[in-house]
Design goal:
The radius of gyration is 28 Å and the shape is elongated. The N terminus is likely disordered. A three-stranded mixed sheet has the order 1-9-8. A two-stranded antiparallel ribbon has the order 2-7. By secondary structure, the protein is mainly beta. The protein contains three helices and eleven strands. The chain starts with a helix and ends in a 13-residue tail after the last helix.
């Protein structure tokens, strides 16, 4: 961050988008074959309700930062070069909270475990990524929330092996059937239905 500040990079201090989150989900081969509707619990941060994400005590509003006059940038004492950096008083937002919200202590966000409904489509492959838009961490000062990415891992099956869209299984075959031909019963993924 310091290098970006030194080179004139501007940080949008208080209105930063929320962080994206990752959730690893293990499912069985049968669930991958049929699809699945499930609920997951995700620890996250959400917008503080009492202050509506402003961080200010209910009824009050953030005020303009006096250190940077609302610009969000502060100048290092003049010398040979003039260097601008993110204002340390307001962290680049241009505003400070005079009276902080009691619930979130001025951050505008609170930690909460969310319960989300997730639809796993039939035929999903190992390593598939499902994106739930806006279900990541809440943004700062009511900015846009991040996304939640669900990474699917398919557990090893005791009979079947999957290779892309193909499913293989080993079936014991009597020597006589191998030489003379015959009929063999082969299980399928959905034969248990």
């Amino acid at each position: 961050e310091m290098f970006g500040d030194f080179m004139g990079g501007r940080r949008e201090g208080g209105n930063r988008r929320g962080a994206d989150l990752r959730y690893n989900m293990d499912i069985s081969l049968e669930e991958a074959f049929r699809g699945r509707q499930t609920e997951i619990k995700v620890p996250s941060t959400v917008t503080c309700e009492p202050c509506s994400g402003s961080g200010a005590k209910n009824g009050s509003q953030p005020i303009t930062c006096r250190a940077c006059q609302g610009s969000g940038r502060a100048r290092v004492p003049p010398g040979f070069f003039t260097i601008e950096r993110t204002c340390p008083t307001c962290q680049g937002s241009g505003q400070v909270i005079k009276e902080a919200c009691n619930t979130c202590t001025g951050s505008g966000r609170v930690h909460k475990e969310k319960t989300l409904s997730v639809a796993i489509p039939p035929g999903v492959e190992d390593g598939t990524r499902i994106r739930l838009s806006g279900e990541g961490e809440a943004g700062f000062n009511s900015a846009q929330s991040g996304d939640l990415y669900i990474f699917i891992s398919i557990a090893t099956h005791h009979i079947f092996q999957r290779d892309g869209a193909n499913i293989y299984c080993k079936v014991p075959l009597p020597f006589t059937s191998a030489c003379l031909g015959g009929h063999v019963e082969v299980p399928t993924v959905d034969s248990g239905r």
